[in-house]
Design a protein that fits this description.
232 residues, single chain, 10% helix, elongated, 1 helix, two-stranded antiparallel ribbon, Porin, 11 strands, 8-stranded antiparallel barrel, mainly beta
């Protein structure tokens, strides 16, 4: 073996290896980072809305003279206007509505005589607070109620005159709303309404008539303003 040639070859290999290592050290290396986390968009309930609603009401009406009670009931249909403001998952709102209704009932209050209680329209103005599960929002609501109540005996023989009054009372309830499109939502809700009582007939013959109503109704709302989605 030619040891001189072998030594020369080793020296050349060492020189090449050193040069390659130096050049490799100068090559920029990529920096690996974790992947970008996806941003999840949640439905945002903030904004004004306008809607329609319809349902069914039933309740009680007590007369003091004569001492009878009837059970008014019937359908209802109307419109809704409101505003929601969402903070995190909490949705604060104000809502008002007015409905035509045919809630009425009569009861026998003397031989051959009936006493009827009837309400032709009802409105409410309420606060709402809900908790948003993205597009689902259960809520509770409460505030004022106002409506017309009529008390009518079938004859004046009782000494009690027919009378009507626009009453101001209160309401409380809750519901569930679902946003099925970007600006459209539907809801179902229950309300309890108490319009108090009023007096009919001239003194000293005074009849006190009360009116309380339970309501179950569905609604369809369109949201006009506010962001459709929020990220939080």
């Amino acid at each position: 073996m030619n040891w001189k040639s072998f030594g020369t070859a080793l020296a050349a290999i060492g020189l090449l290896a050193g040069t390659f290592s130096a050049q490799a050290a100068d090559i920029p290396r990529p920096v690996y980072k974790s992947g970008i986390s996806p941003v999840i968009a949640y439905y945002n309930w903030t904004g004004f809305y306008l809607g329609i609603n319809g349902g069914y009401g039933w309740g009680t009406s007590d007369w003091s003279l004569p001492a009878v009670s009837n059970k008014p009931k019937g359908g209802m249909f109307g419109g809704t206007l409101g505003y929601n403001y969402q903070v995190g998952s909490i949705v604060w709102g104000l809502e008002g509505d007015i409905d035509w209704q045919n809630v009425r009932s009569s009861v026998a209050c003397a031989p051959g005589i009936t006493c009827e209680t009837r309400s032709d329209w009802l409105g409410t103005f309420r606060g709402r607070i809900g908790y948003a599960f993205d597009r689902w929002m259960p809520y509770i609501t409460g505030g004022g109620a106002y409506g017309n109540v009529k008390a009518t005996p079938s004859t004046a023989g009782l000494g009690v005159a027919a009378a009507s009054d626009t009453r101001l009372g209160w309401t409380f309830g809750g519901g569930l709303e679902y946003a099925f499109l970007s600006n459209w939502s539907t809801k179902i809700e229950y309300l309890y309404v108490d319009l108090g009582s009023f007096n009919t007939g001239p003194a000293p013959v005074v009849n006190n008539v009360s009116f309380k109503e339970n309501i179950v109704r569905a609604g369809l709302n369109y949201k006009f303003s506010g962001p459709i989605f929020s990220r939080y």
